Amino acid sequence: MPLPQATADAILGRMTEILIADDHPLYRDALRRALHQAAPGASLFESATVPELLALVEAHPEAELLLLDLHMPGARGFSALAHLRGQYPGLPVIVVSAHEEASVARRALAHGAAGYIPKSSSAETIVEAIGHVRDGEIWMPASMGSASTPLRDDEAQIAARVAELTPQQFRVLAMIAEGLLNKQIAYELGVSEATVKAHMTAIMRKLGCNNRTQVALAASQLALDPNTALPPADVEDS
């Protein structure tokens, strides 16, 4: 059943810009339809990859909310969330994920998410969650509990360091974690290999790493399951 319009207006009527970040067109469409039903006056902006999302956030500094999927090209687990919370601390982020595990939801809150919505949730639940977050509250399904799980020390430390990266450095970090070489990263970003190497040096300094393998291992600490995240070989580009 759709929410009464008066209720929807009370919850979302003040919102002007909402960002949606999800690489699944069908689910973006579902979110868009739910939000248009609840807040027909809100402007919605979408992205399907983390590079697109970073550009979107930069282009809309007045955005009042971000709905973020954990699985998108350019992100590994909680890495994008950690980076965004560091770079844009005033932007509330609600994680919208297919993961139904309470442990994942609690880790998301520990990384700074303002809410966690399983993708199986109804449109009414999505509106309810946004309303609570808009009022400055933290929201997650009652079935998952109400408290975040304290992060391991190594995960908390790497999250804080990832938060200090510039957006371009974060893009390079994501590509390193995927195993791309400097020349491949340079091609993808449209920059010189020398520029990539300069970014690499800055990333290693900020993450406290000495080589490419250590950088990839550090990034793997933010994976949903760090035990399955294997770093690429330590290959030195010529």
Would you kindly provide a written description of the structure presented here, covering whatever features stand out?
The chain is globular. 49% of the residues lie in helices and 10% in strands. Helix 2 links the parallel strand 1 and strand 2 (43-47). A 5-stranded parallel beta sheet has the order 2-1-3-4-5, with helices on both faces. The chain has helices spanning 5-12, 25-38, 50-59, 79-87, 102-110, 123-134, 153-163, 167-177, 182-189, 193-207, 212-220; strands at 17-21, 43-47, 65-68, 93-97, 115-118. It has 2 domains: 5-144, Rossmann fold (3-Layer(aba) Sandwich); 153-228, Winged helix-like DNA-binding domain superfamily/Winged helix DNA-binding domain (Arc Repressor Mutant, subunit A, Orthogonal Bundle).
Provide a compact summary of the structure.
By secondary structure, the chain is of the alpha/beta class.
- How many strand segments? 5
CATH architecture label of the largest domain: 3-Layer(aba) Sandwich
The side-by-side strand order for the widest beta sheet comes to 2-1-3-4-5
Tell me, rounded to a whole number, the average pLDDT: 85
**What is the fold named in CATH at topology level of the largest domain?**
Rossmann fold
**Number of domain units:** 2
Calculate the terminal CA-CA distance, rounded to whole Å: 61 Å
- CATH top level of the largest domain is Alpha Beta
How does the helix and strand content classify structurally?
A: alpha/beta
**Helicity range:** 40-55%
Largest β sheet strand count, sense and barrel closure: 5 strands, parallel
Query: H/E element string?
Result: HEHEHEHEHEHHHHHH
